[in-house]
Amino acid sequence: MAAWRALTCLLAALLWGVAWASVERDLSPECRAFLYMGTPPVGLEDHSLRKICQRYNGRPRFVTLYDTVDHVPVYSAYTFKRSDGERRVDVPWMFEPQLSTTSDTGEMQPFPRGYLHQNFEDAQAVLEDYENAVSYERGQLNPDEHQADPDDKAATYTLTNVVPQAWEFGIGPWKEQEHRIRKRLNNFCRGTAYVVTGITTSGHMIRRHNMDRVAIPTYMWSAYCCINYDHNAPYEERYKFPAFAHYGLNQREGNQVLEIPVKKLEEFLKGSTFVDKNFQIFVDDCVPPPSALP
Q1: Within 10 Å of residue 7's Cβ, how many Cβ atoms?
Q2: What CA–CA distance (Å, rounded) separates 161 from 164?
Q3: DSSP-assigned beta bridge partners for residue 77
Q4: From CA 77, how far away is CA 196, in angstroms rounded?
Q5: Do the beta carbons of residue 150 and residue 141 sit within 8 Å?
Q6: Which letter, b or e, does each residue of 104-142 get, where b requires 16 or more Cβ atoms within 10 Å of its Cβ?
Q7: Which residues lie below 8 Å from residue 137, measured CB to CB, with a gap of 6+?
Q8: N or C: which end of the chain has fewer CB within 10 A?
Q9: How does pLDDT run across 101-115, given as a tens digit for each residue?
Q10: What is the pLDDT of residues 216-230, one digit of tens each?
Q11: Cross-strand partners of 244
Q12: Integer Cα distance of 191 and 230 in angstroms
């Protein structure tokens, strides 16, 4: 009986670990809910890339593919929530405990006060990496203005969802495009909108203590998929459904954001980053099967 009880406890512990692990080899069904057709982008494979189910306050909030060598997210994937665009400003920046160590929590955690080298620092960015990077701000791939629930907004304040974004680009063209997408999806998407926002890099890094620490994005890109949309929307908005995309050069001057079809973005990324020839952001590029059409 004692042996059976011990085995039962062990199985329960394993199942609990599977259910609550934030860094996952294969995403759980509740985390796949943030991905169109439950499928992450394909054609991105590297030993340093880790899938994170971003959990906050007891619930999964979005999904990130994180590079533990360059210390930046390759992309964050989330479901858009109708929002008034307000930002949540009372949230401490957080980190992912399980990227580099076994932890008793499967959730993001606030950074500890005071600087001491932490065992998670080798696998992810920390606040000190951004302290002297005066030309860059912490740019969210899943922006809080695309979320409505306070906890969903709070969950976007993890450095595993952040890249070094040129300040002028972040407050200018990129922010304007985030507003534009928010208004478009608020007004014309009738169902769930799936969004994937990512970066390309070219080897330029933020350095700290004479060490390369955080990769600086060359381009930032984003794509959305909403198969249930308003077919009576004005043409200038309607033709950007069910899916559309945009990208921009992450630099201080002369930057702009270009809107293009998802297929064009995929072709661009195949020529400018490490994705392979099979790279695809959404299953069938978000062309719904006939049975799914309204």
Answers
A1: 10
A2: 11
A3: 63, 196
A4: 4
A5: no
A6: eebbbbebeeeeeeeebbebbbbeebbeebeebbbbbbb
A7: 164, 165, 167, 170, 171
A8: N
A9: 666 678 999 988 765
A10: 999 999 999 999 999
A11: 224
A12: 10
| C-alpha angle 279-235-285 in degrees, rounded to nearest 5 | 15
Q: Which residue has the tokens 């050069």?
A: 249
What does the alpha-carbon distance between residue 77 and residue 63 come to, in Å, rounded to a whole number?
5
pLDDT at 242 exceeding the cut of 70:
yes
- For the chain, what's the residue count? 294
Instruction: Supply 134's token pair.
Output: 């005066």
The position carrying tokens 């304007």 is: 176
Asked if residues 164 and 139 have their Cβ atoms less than 8 Å apart, the reply is yes
Q: Is the pTM of this model over 0.85?
A: yes
How far is 75 from 65, CA to CA, in rounded Å?
6
Task: Report CA 101 to chain centroid distance, whole Å.
Answer: 21
Average pLDDT value for residue range 44-55: 88
181's tokens:
């997408």
